[in-house]
Design the sequence.
């Protein structure tokens, strides 16, 4: 992330990206193929403030 401070005001911004993969067997692995699950997560946050 990054932030900026100008005189009495500030802004901070951050971004997070995450990816995970897994194989899930709902039944006996010898009888069925695995379900491949891919999860992508994007998180953005920000703050704004001022000093008084």
Sequence:
């Amino acid at each position: 992330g990054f932030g900026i401070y100008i005189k009495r005001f500030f802004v901070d911004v951050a971004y997070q990206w995450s990816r995970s993969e897994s194989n899930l067997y709902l039944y006996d692995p010898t009888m069925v193929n695995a379900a491949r699950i891919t999860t992508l997560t994007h998180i953005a946050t920000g703050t704004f403030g001022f000093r008084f």
Summary: The first strand starts at residue 2 and ends at 6. The radius of gyration is 21 Å. Residues 7 and 14 are 21 Å apart (CA to CA).
